[in-house]
Structures are given as C-alpha cells and as structure tokens.
Amino acid sequence: MQIEKNKDGNNLDVKLIGRLDTTTSPELEKELGESLAGVTRLVFDVSELAYISSAGLRVLLSAQKTMNSQSGSMVIRHASDEIMEIFEVTGFTDILTIEND
Q1: 0.85 exceeded by the pTM?
Q2: In this structure, are strands 97-99 and 73-77 parallel, antiparallel, or unpaired?
Q3: Residue 17 belongs to domain spanning
Q4: Is the separation of the CB atoms in 8 and 39 below 8 Å?
Q5: CATH code of the domain covering residue 54
Q6: Total tally of structural domains belonging to the chain
C-alpha cells in the first residue's frame, strides 16, 4: 500500500493506494500517529483503495475517535462501489462521513 500525505496548516489529506489489510494497517496507524497532532480536518481519498479489511476499518475508526477528541472532522472521499459495500455491510456508513461524487 502507498500512503500519500499532504498537510496544509490544520488540514491533512491522506490518499490510500492499494490494499489496507492486516499487513499494511500498522503502517497507516503509525503515519497517523505521527501526523494528527493539531489537525482539525482529516480527509482520506480512497479512490485507489482496492480492498479494506477489518484491520483497516479499525485504523479508520481509531482516526475518527482521535479527530472527535480534537474537536476535528474526518471525511472519506471517492470510495469505489466495492469499498462502499464493505462500509455498508459493517455499519461504518453510520459512523463515518463518506462523500462520493
């Protein structure tokens, strides 16, 4: 998996490319742990995310909790039909803010 980050002031954009699974989730968790201090708006672009496992969902949920504790917001953008189906089946559409074009 590739992680592309772009920080602009208190805004952090993160693009995820590839598979977010048991093997790659710790890398994202580490990146977020080092990057979220002072962030008030976190945006994930998942347009090139091919797969997300329960381990990946856990990292997103943890990021959402961190943003809530910092009175910030988190948005997931450009989810494919396959990724949206995973979010819907797991109930994450009720927990996360997901914006699709």
Answers
A1: yes
A2: parallel
A3: 2-99
A4: no
A5: 3.30.750.24
A6: 1
